[in-house]
Specification:
Layout (H helix, E strand, L loop, with lengths): L1 H23 L25 E7 L3 E2 L5 E9 L5 E6 L3 E5 L2 E3 L5 E3 L2 E6 L4 E5 L4 E8 L12 E7 L5 E2 L2 E2 L3 E2 L4 E3 L8 E11 L2 E10 L4 E8 L16
């Protein structure tokens, strides 16, 4: 019996010793992560940009008069750029026209004349510019005189390359006016004439003619409308 008690005490002491040693041991500390290497800065190529400005020698022309438009191409980047072809392809456009009312009619823009591009190229240093003068005789692609109105001389940028890439030029557009043979008539004509169509009475009050537009002032009287008496009576809305 005494041997059993001694053996039990020895086993209990051994168990306490093992537990104490296990509690004193700490888990290994992980090694610190390596410092990430800095990403080298990217070197961005300067954009290929042109400042394109078009200026006409006059704002209005009579039929048959030559129209001169000067195009200026300026390198607004900090690196040289090459323009090709030079001069670029150009075109004369009759812009879109919308006519209202009573029915809305939209006339799509139309290219009336094109000018083939040159075969050379031009290198522009930063801040350098080059000019090109386009002369248009007012003839369309069939050799006929175009009708009076506004026209836009444009550059076909999609066909112009800068440093071997399609152009991303910016700039201003110019608009030229071809007047009627007698020139623009500045006048206001008081008409005050009425006509009834399908029960509607349409009164044309006056017409204003300017160098840029013709304006008609008219109003409509519905069939069931009775104007009030008196000189100061208002017109129907």
């Amino acid at each position: 019996m005494k041997k059993i008690v001694i053996l039990f005490v020895v086993l209990l002491a051994a168990l306490l010793l093992v537990t104490s040693v296990a509690g004193c041991q700490q888990p290994p500390t992980p090694a610190p992560a390596p410092e990430p290497e800095p990403t080298p800065p990217r070197t961005l190529a300067p954009p290929s940009r042109l400042d394109v400005v078009a200026v006409s020698d006059r704002n209005a022309y009579l039929p048959g008069e030559p129209i001169m438009i000067e195009f200026s191409f300026k390198n607004i980047t900090s690196a040289p750029i090459v323009i090709s072809p030079s001069p670029p392809e150009m075109e004369i456009v009759l812009p879109e026209i919308e006519i209202t009312p009573p029915d809305t009619l939209t006339l799509q823009a139309e290219v009336v004349q094109s000018f083939a591009p040159g075969s050379g190229e031009v290198k522009l240093e930063p801040g350098e510019n080059v000019t090109y003068t386009l002369v248009w005789d007012q003839l369309d692609s069939n050799g006929q005189q175009v009708v009076p109105g506004y026209y836009n001389p444009n550059i076909k940028a999609r066909n112009m390359g800068i440093n071997g890439k399609v152009a991303g030029g910016i700039g201003t557009a110019v608009r030229v006016l071809i007047q009627y043979p007698q020139g623009a008539m500045e006048k206001t004509a008081e008409v005050n004439q009425s006509q009834t169509v399908n029960g509607l009475t349409i009164t044309l009050e006056r017409v204003e003619l300017t160098s840029t537009a013709t304006r008609f002032y008219a109003f409509v009287i519905p069939p069931d409308y009775s104007p009030p008496e008196g000189e100061d009576a208002e017109r129907p809305p």
